[in-house]
Write a structure and sequence with these properties.
By secondary structure, this protein is an alpha/beta fold. It has two domains: 222 residues, Periplasmic binding protein-like II (D-Maltodextrin-Binding Protein, domain 2, 3-Layer(aba) Sandwich); 94 residues, 3-Layer(aba) Sandwich (D-Maltodextrin-Binding Protein, domain 2). The chain contains 13 helices and eleven strands. It has a six-stranded mixed sheet with strand order 2-1-3-10-4-11, sandwiched between helices. It is found in: Periplasm. Keywords: Lipoprotein, Palmitate, Signal, Transport. This is Sulfonate ABC transporter substrate-binding protein. Belongs to the bacterial solute-binding protein SsuA/TauA family.
């Protein structure tokens, strides 16, 4: 293995594990997980679901029907919030959660790190839900203008792939820009005070920056990336709990259908849950596509392409086979 590639990846994984440990402790009051106690996922009494600031699972949590439906079967849900996909999948890796959602890129990093993840389902492509932003009065007018500039993003997140594709499309290399890696909250601060020239970010942070900071879209994901939301599970949980997973997917699809037909009402409903003003959430929902389906061959091939790209750029330590993260007949 290339030594530089290995060092960079190990630093990334170590940082994610540290952040995840802090997040899990904050949400559950525990500094770790009892992996042995949860090794047998049959006859499960509690499903541990990881979610982020915004997404389909977040809507499902707020709506509450899944909790009631599983409660009727004697199963409780523990909802655990994470700042981003990489941290959520690290928690899945160490056994803190059974099921969760991320964008396209985090599962690639997780699989390369040996995490026992499996793809369950995905939403449709929503390329307008992430973008490269610059300040309102920035002299930067094109991706080519980013050469020599500072760009901030959350390493290993969906927008990592967006930046890669945008830079390649402009005829540049990643080495042509100075990339800083920060989680969304810290990245927003750096962007707002001018410490960086551009911010690569996803909704709802993207919409919030547009409205509150008057940030300008340099380029969104349209024509570059799919920007799908993925639902993933820990392998042993998925292998013996397809009935539970099917119920989760049914409820997610039902919620998605309602939101797509009632965007204004959904935004008002979610606003207190996620502490984001309803007009901002409306902007997010209006550029989001809806619908949940089990992963298909086409989607898996897109994920393989992302994995190959990250490997060729030395962002992951070894090549991955996306089908190693799939359960047959699921």
């Amino acid at each position: 293995m290339n030594l530089f590639r290995k060092i960079i990846f190990l630093v990334f994984i170590s940082n994610v594990a540290l952040i995840t440990g802090c997040a899990a402790q904050k949400e559950t009051g525990s500094s770790g997980s009892n992996i042995e106690a949860r090794a047998d996922h049959s006859n499960i009494e509690t499903v541990h679901i990881g979610y982020q600031k915004f997404g389909t699972l977040n809507i499902l949590k707020a709506e509450g029907n899944l909790d009631e439906r599983l409660k009727d079967q004697g199963i409780a849900i523990e909802w655990i919030e994470f700042p981003a996909g990489p941290q959520l999948l690290e928690a899945l890796n160490v056994g803190s959660i059974d099921f969760g959602h991320t964008g396209e890129a985090p599962p690639i990093f997780a699989q390369a790190a040996g995490a026992p993840i499996v793809y369950i389902a995905n939403g449709p492509a929503s390329p307008k839900g992430e973008a490269i932003l610059v300040q309102k009065n920035s002299p930067i007018k094109s991706i080519e203008d980013l050469k020599g500039k500072k760009v901030v993003l959350n390493r290993g997140s969906n927008v990592h792939y967006l930046l890669v594709k945008a830079i390649q499309d402009a005829g540049l290399q990643l080495d042509d820009i100075e990339v800083t890696y920060l989680p969304p909250g810290d990245a927003r601060i750096a962007f707002d005070r001018g410490d960086v020239d551009a911010w690569v970010i996803w909704d709802p942070f993207f919409a919030s920056a547009e409205v509150e900071l008057e940030a300008r879209i340099l380029r969104d994901g349209e024509g570059l990336v799919a920007n799908r939301e993925f639902l993933l599970a820990e392998r042993t949980f998925a292998e013996v709990n397809d009935e539970i997973i099917s119920i989760i997917l049914e409820e997610l699809d039902s919620v998605d259908q309602w939101v797509s037909e009632n965007i204004g009402e959904a935004a008002a409903f979610l606003s207190p849950e996620v502490s984001i003003e309803a007009p901002i959430l409306e902007k997010v929902l209006e550029r989001r596509e809806f619908g949940i389906s089990r992963v298909t061959e086409e989607v898996l091939l897109d994920q393989q392409s992302i994995g190959d790209t990250f490997y060729n750029l030395d962002l992951i330590p070894s090549e991955i086979n996306i089908y190693d993260a799939v359960i047959e007949n699921k």
